[in-house]
Amino acid sequence: MNRLIAVLLVVLIAPILPIGVLLFLIANPDYYRDALTERFHEQTGLTLVSADLGWRYFPPIALTLKNIQVNGLDGDALASLDASAIDVALWPLISEQRVDLRAVYIEGADINLVQDENGRRNWLLNDDSEAPSDEPRAEAVDESTRPVNLQLNIERIELVNSQLRYRDQIAQMDTTVQLTSLSTGAVEPGKPINVAIEALMSSATGLDAALKASGDITIAPGLKTITLEAFRTQLNTSDSGTSYEVDITTNTLLDMSGNMTRIDSEISGSIDALSVTGEITAALTEMPHISGELHVTTLNMNPYLTEDTGETSTAAAETATDTDTDTEEMIPMEAFRGVALELAISADTLVYDEYTFTNLATQIDNDDALAVTATLEGYGGTFDINSRVTHDEIPITDTTINIDGVDVAEFAELDWITGSLSLESTTQLTGAYKHNLNDQLTGTNRFVVTDGSMDITTLRRVVQLVATLTRQTHRVADWPDRLVFEELHGDLTLPSGLVEGQQLNLKADEFTIDGTGGIDILAREVDYALQLTFEEAPPEPDPDTPIPADQLAVDESLTRISWPITCAGSLDDSPATLCLPDREAVRGVIIRIANEKVAEKGEELLEKAKQKLEEKIPQNVRDKTKDLLEGLFN
């Protein structure tokens, strides 16, 4: 009977004991507070502060925490959260008093990550070198006396409506991420974690982004390294008013184990319409260093160019203020002064404004100065560009450009000249704004156009005007509309900017053009005073024979004389419209030539009269009258 009673008691009491244990545990959540805090500090080096700890009383059973704060190694707040629920496995809790986490839900987290000017990070876990020297080391804990085991194998984490701020006092970075949602798969130390993120990001530099990301993340103990595998990031970004769409997949290693943060990444994807592949390495030191190689199938720069207002008239230019022109910074040097670059960028196709090039290869180096070298092909020829920009408050840009074999008509969209262009240009610009081109650009430009033709309307008008003023006839009606040439040489010197003082020389077999003047690129106006000189006239052709297209029939009386031409007006006009003979100046040249001829004729007549008079003077007195005659005729 006693044995039966004992068996019945065991049968009845055995189910009740776990329930009793569970009721005790549920009724006393503070039983775990110290255990959680102690194990959290032991495993992370961080301090967990909890204001409220409780249970959720229905399966799955969950530990609820509110008003939590986590202090970093420096004692300052590393993170805080409004509310959290941690699902706990029921049986291990009852049978083994082991808190085995199944899922973590977090709302309203505020995470503050800081790297100070000495490279110390407030989130480095289990890093003795980062801990304050006077902080006592954790003593060994007797596992047999520990009331609770905490397993950090978590099936999933869900985080909503939270914020992460990262400040790097070495790299001068300040970025804030508003996490709309973050969810993970199973979380086990040292193993890949599948993560999905939706967030809004903003930085002190003016970069804003809406972000979606997903992929696998492996986090090393202490957050010393983070590895992203096949991690896809989609961004809609806005940087100082310019919008971008980014869709990039990366394999990335984020190494924070040393005294700097280093990022090594293989990337592929798109930025707007750009297809990008390559490798990037970044070291976030006092001056961040970025290096790598990128390849783009089609690099379209048009979305990033300043929109043209279309105002090119003089009135529009006059209404532009100094402030307006000063905002047109051509190279944002401030962005380059705080970063070191070693980037090689290549593209199958480059689109810039209305121009299309192929086989772009460029190297960008930025240390004590910004240096850019680029080679590309297009319009039947090649382009070689080298530029160096100093980091001075007022930067100085030295540029050399070499062009070889480019179709000048197609490249420059000109209809008044054709041929193959070769150019050697060396210039220096002081300043970073468009208006500096007008008054601070200096240099030399030498060019030659071969196997081409040009509109000679202006040359024809000069000869027609001379014919009208002198009442003479010249065979300009027989001239071709375009002059075919083998070579057209020229050079353009810029002693003090574009607006004034330019020195132009242009030479073909039939003529030379010299002049001075300037171009205002802000008003898009040109003002030049030119001198046209016809070279020695070819043999007079047969009147019945058409003049060849590569030859001008110029009267000998027009050669070796500088005929004035004025070019004034819109830079968009062709020379036929822009450049006209200066009527009054041409008239002055004709009068001067006529006076010179009269003077020459008078001297000739006087000389003949002198000779005749000398012949009539007797020989015996001729020597005596020589001085008298010289004084008379001179």
Short characterization:
The chain is an alpha+beta fold and 634 residues long.
Describe this structure in words.
The structure is a single chain. The chain is an alpha+beta fold and 634 residues long. The chain has helices at residues 2-27, 33-44, 90-95, 314-319, 322-326, 333-336, 408-412, 434-440, 457-470, 575-578, 583-616, 619-633; strands at 47-56, 62-71, 77-88, 98-107, 110-115, 149-151, 156-168, 173-184, 193-203, 207-219, 225-239, 242-255, 261-271, 274-284, 289-300, 340-352, 355-366, 369-378, 381-390, 396-407, 417-430, 441-455, 482-494, 502-507, 511-520, 525-534, 562-570, 579-581. The protein has a 28-stranded mixed sheet that branches. It is rod-shaped and about 150 Å long.
Structural class: alpha+beta
Strand content: over 45%
pLDDT averaged residue by residue? 77
The helicity comes to 10-25%
- Summarize the main sheet: 28 strands, mixed
Tally the helices: what do you get? 12
Radius of gyration, taken over Cα atoms and rounded to an integer in Å? 43 Å
Principal-axes shape call: rod-shaped
The parts where pLDDT drops under 50 for at least 5 residues are 1-27, 126-151, 308-325
Distance from N terminus to C terminus (CA atoms, Å) equals 168 Å
Q: How many runs of DSSP E, i.e. beta strands?
A: 28
